[in-house]
Structure formats: structure tokens, C-alpha cells
# Entry
Amino acid sequence: MDKIKIIGGNQLFGQVYISGAKNTALPIICATLLTEDAVKIKNIPFLSDIKSLNSLLLQLGTQIEIKEEQCNGHLTQTISYCTPKPTSLVAPYDYVRKMRASYYVLGPLLAKYGHVELSLPGGCAIGARPMDIHLSALEQMGAQIEIKNGYVIADVNGRLKGARVSFHSASVGATCNILMAAALAEGTTIIENAAKEPEIADLIHLLNKMGAKIEGENTSTLTIQGVDKLYGVTHEIINDRIEAGSYAVAAAMTKGRLELINANPEHLQCPLDILRKVGVQIETTPNSIIVDAQNAHLVGQDIYTDYYPGFPTDLQAQFMALMCIADGAAMITESIWENRFMHIPELMRMGANINVHGHASAIVRGVPKLSAAPVMSTDLRASFALILAGLFAEGETIVNRVYHLDRGYEHLEEKFKAVGADIERIVIKD
Ligand code: UD1
# Structure
């Protein structure tokens, strides 16, 4: 397991190219299963989660062609997916265990081939991660679902039928799965209380290009008129708002200035507003964000995570790291996941002053200094928060369990080195 070594204290200056969005790429890759034609996806980031999902699709019989090419000024992957005839309709435990978003094969395979067996993803470090919304919506669309030996076994006689489904939470995963299933269902499906994240809008763009009939983009009611067939297209995915928000915090914490290229400020309105209130200067163009903290006096601000367009839970840990060194107190409340404070004990080991109230709220009182330490975390975004703390802290911080970061942050050390961070990966050979 590799580690990352950081010597803190350097201000960061320069440009960071933001990569394609992981959480858009994952459902979009699975949407390619809805057609026998080849679907070419551009701007796919180099991440281990993408490799894991590609392995699952290969196992299902998808033909995959990967080409590295320049897109939006930097090197990305264009991947062509073609599944003329699946060789399996089973997503086995070993794949789903490694990459929870493997559950995005559920909707497409059931809608297109009438059967799917998916290992239940189970819980993970940040929470229980149930699938009740996905499954109940599919049942309302005519699927027969059985849970057996840790697997969801879903069948449908003929085609799925359109239905009016109402979600008890605005789940991103369930919205994607039901959109994909409904695209090929017979009749009209209406999703009420759908998620409105930008990743959903991008999936809708792809599906509509493929021939689907979906209306209601960016609202909580989506109407999908099912069609008989979907077709091959080329699609470029949006850039990663969470990666952009993470590097914005790096500029703020190091009192530097970073230009985030290929970042859409519209997708980050709530986090950028918080940064402004913290005291950071933000300038935007339609596809870039300049974060300037050179003269900033950082002041703590409260944060409440919520569904989009609220503050994203996936930036909570990074912003908590920022509040650790801002003046005054900040109340941070996590409303989406029940166990997303694992970074707190590690930040406290570096000298942060944090008081946890129950498991949903924490008061962070800013301190002038953090001190370096060996740290580790149990999830992707929390690991980035520890990198941020290390960039600020005096001395040498070692962040363990780097595989979390490799799941979601493309070329992390290279991007940080290019803007002046003293950071390197320590490769541990087995
Ligand atoms: C996605 C993101 C994840 C992000 C999360 C919330 C991907 C691959 N992951 O996860 O990074 O933190 O959105 O923005 O895109 N819920 C249920 N029943 C269900 C499904 C969800 O109760 O059937 C609940 C969950 O427990 C959670 C909330 O709904 O409290 C949101 O979950 P959801 O939006 O589904 O998260 P994911 O799609 O798994």
C-alpha cells in the first residue's frame, strides 16, 4: 500500500486542470449497456474506480477500446464501449465489493435483457448505503426481485412498465438507475423527488442523445417516455466539481492562488459562496475558477451538507480541514451520511480543535498551527482532507492508505507538485 509524504508550508500557485467527473463517468459507462452499438465516452479520468468498472463490463462481455488523447488542454481517456451480446448478466461480489457504483448495471441490464444478478453492495465506511429506493422503484415497474445469498436477483417478464415512482430521499444512485431502466421501459415513468446533481443532467444528456425521451432535467420531477431501442453516440462527460472544490480549498489553506481550469462554477455555487464568506477571493469564467487567498484573513463558517444545490457531502471533510485553521468557530453538520466524520480523530492528532456532537454535528475552533503526523483515513474525500492538513502543517505528514485517493483523484501528486507543493508518493512493493 503506497503512502504520500508531504512537507507542509508551501503556498500553492499556478494552474490545475480539473479532470472528468468520476461520479458522472460511472453511471454513463453503465448506460452503454443499453445499446448493442458502440458508445464512445470522452474525458474519462485515469482512476482506479474506472478500471474496476471496466473489469466488470469486460466480465459481462463488453468490448472496450481505450485511447489516450488530449481533451480540453490535458491528457484524458476516450473509451469506446460495445456490448453486442452480453456473456453474463451477473455482477459478482468481488467487483461490487471493490466498487459500489457497480450497482449501476442493475437498471440497464434488467431493462435491456430482462434479468440481472447483482451482489448487494452492503455498507461502507461512510454509512449503510441501502438500495431500497432502487429496488422498490423497479418492482413498481414490474420487476420481480428476490434477495438470495447476498445477491439481488431481478427478473422481468417482457419489458419493464412505466410507473409513477416517488423516492423517500433524493438518491443520486437510484435516480440514475431508474432513469436508465425507464429509458427502455414500455410507457411513461415519472420520478418524483429525483436527485438534481449535475451528474444526473449529464446522464440525461447522454441518454437523450442515444434516443431516450427524458424531460425535467435539473428539476426534482423527471418524465421518461420509454423507447424501443437506443443507439451508439459519442459523448464528452462534464468535469469533476468535487475535485475542483477540493483544489479550491488547497489554495485557501496554503494562502496561495490557483486557477482551476475546466471547472464549472455553476456546479459549485454553494461551496464558492462559503469560500467567499471565509475571506477568499473568487473569480469565475464559464469554465474556470480563480481562487486567491494570498491576502485572506480566513474566518470560520458554518456548513450544512444537503442534496444539490446544497453543500455537497463530498466536500465536507475538505472544508472541515479549512475550518480547522480559520479564525473563530464553525459548526459542521452532515445530513446525508450517518458516519462521515472519520477524518476528525486524524485531524485532531494533527492539533485541530474539534468537538463532536452526536454523529451529525461538530464544532471546529480554528487553531493557528497544525503539526505533521502519520495519518490515515477510511474513505476517499476524508483522505484528501488529510492531504490538505498536511500541506498546511509544519513538518512531514505521511498519509497512509493512498488507494482511497487513487479511486477519485487523478494524478494527485503531479497536480500538486506542478503548483509548488512538496509532495511525493512512497511506493511500497509487496
Ligand atoms: C452518490 C455519490 C457519493 C455522494 C452521494 C451523495 C457516486 C458514485 N457516489 O452516492 O459520492 O456522497 O451520492 O451526494 O455518485 N438512500 C436510501 N436508500 C437508497 C439509496 C440511498 O435510503 O436506496 C439514502 C442514503 O443512505 C443516503 C442518501 O439516500 O443517506 C443519499 O444516497 P445516494 O444519493 O443514493 O448516494 P449514492 O448514489 O450512493
User: Anything to note?
Assistant: The chain has a mean pLDDT of 96. The chain has two domains: 3-18+239-426, 22-235. The longest helix spans residues 48-60. Residues 23, 26, 101, 127-134, 169, 171-174, 195, 313-314, 336-337 surround uridine-diphosphate-N-acetylglucosamine (CB under 6 Å).
